[in-house]
Prior knowledge:
The complex is a heterodimer. Chain A is of the alpha+beta class. Chain A has helices spanning 44-52, 94-104, 109-122, 138-150, 168-185, 196-202, 220-225, 230-235, and strands at residues 6-15, 18-28, 33-37, 59-64, 67-68, 79-82, 156-160, 188-193, 205-210, 213-218, 240-248, 253-256, 259-262, 275-280, 286-287, 295-306, 310-318, 321-328, 341-346.
Amino acid sequence: MADDFLRLENLVKAFGNNTVVKGANLSFNRGEFITLLGPSGCGKTTILRMIAGFERPTSGAILVEGKDISPLPPNQRKIGMVFQAYALFPNMNVEDNVGFGLKIAGVGTEERRARVEEMLKLIGLSGFGKRFPFEMSGGQQQRVALARALAPKPRMLLLDEPLSALDAKIRVSLRQEIRSIQRDLGITTIFVTHDQEEALSISDRIVVMSAGSVEQFGTPFDVYNKPATKFVATFVGQLNTLSATVADASRGAVSIGGQTVTVPKLPASAKTGDLISLTMRPEAMQVANGHMRDIVLDGTVSEVSFLGSVIRLKVNLGQGNAVHVDTFNDQRTPPPAHDAKVKVTLAGSDILVLSD
Amino acid sequence: MRRGRLWAWIVFALGALYFLLPLIATVQFSLSIRRDAITLDAYTNVIQSPVFQQTFGYSIIIAVAAIVVGLLLVVPAAYFVRLRAPQLRPIIEFVTLLPLIIPPIILVFGYIRMYNSSSVLPLTNTSVGTNVLLTLAYVALALPYMYRAVDTGLRTIDVQTLTEAANILGANTLTILLRVIFPNIIVAVLSGAFLTLAIVIGEFTIASLLNRPAFGVYMQNVGANRAFEPAALAVISFVITWGAMGMIQLLARFAPRTAALTD
């Protein structure tokens, strides 16, 4: 249900001649967990910093519940933020860090103490109040930073790559914790990351960005399964590309490795005889084991990567075509050997037709 | 390896002798006011002298004033340069070095010319005005040390992120400076303060030409008229300076520690 809690209208940010955000138009609902996803320099952090008030938009507006907050300084926006580098105040213990925003707001000592205790309980660090930041691990510090951001009951929470400095295991557990706290509090949250797995796993919706522009805005399911552009398809997950010749443009028939198959949609400009690229996800392809789908291609296994629950094969199909095929690890069936001859099969409907 | 260590000790011993011998000689001389005994009479004479107490007290007050004014000037300046205009840092550094390049004698004549009784701002007309002028002159003199100390302190913390973190929690610039930045650079600030104290306590040229009753001027007067007391004064002056340096070292232990970045 769209309620336009936060709306970005034609948001542009330029540093000199370099335009880093090129007219973002986005609308987020109350209580949503939104992720801004993209490679370094795509403008995701700049958007976050404009929402926080640390950067002034070159043009456009940032509306919260219909009111433009662009002219407000950061300390009047009632927004909580967690930074990549924790940014806990080294001279204050955990209690004072968490209570800082409340103290600034003039909350009384007793009420402040109770709220700090509530926050520490929320992040599972009760009893850590007297510790100083240097006495805590990175994961603990980041949880304190989260408690500090949430303590003054902000109307929105911004997370600027909060997990980047942590090791892999803590990243996973902390992101689940963040999501669970966010759900409990129902706070609108904007999370910036360049890690697609992180984005897919915790977001209600994802904004995929590239070179200052929004490439796609949708649910993790849509972004992964129905990528709007080639950039989205390649940035979010793995992608195979196959060369094919258009056999009959009017029927959507193409020839791949000598077989003619019908694809759901061809690029509008494709004519019969044109050489085109078809793309599909590695898990959409299977090594044929008697059960054939629309397209069957002969190939040779050139790489076998054992990833635990998944086995990733690289299969050379000849004529310069090579694809990755993901299959679930089945304990009763060993993976194909290197140089083994295999048949790769996929359904025509799994082919993604992408614009650049 | 062993030979290298021996050479290191020899060089260290030579260096120590170079610095310590004159000091030992001064201490010994200051204790020899009576021919037949080692006494602290020279120190007693100095400390009990009302002029010593007045000039020392005066210099301490001026030093504290110079420290306060210097900090009010340097901390916000260094903070804003780091935060908003890092490109200005080389220029600011050059400006703060100027007092080292311009001799105090030039500085004080400049001040006298600018602020004499026939100028627009005749500070030298009154005693208070001249005290203010002396304080400002000491602020300028201590600027290279104060700025560097504060800037080094700021370098140890992530000024921008801490500022932003406090800002989004509702703090204004003054609150950020007082509650977040200042407590985290307090040791550096105190280093700057003690360096200023050490410089101001013994300063002669500016105080003398502005005709102020400062400790440096008193030391010079005593040196010109007495034999053993100047040596005692020199030792006292050394002790004050070393005390200030020792305080810097001691305070470094209480610096707020920056947080570990990884698990």
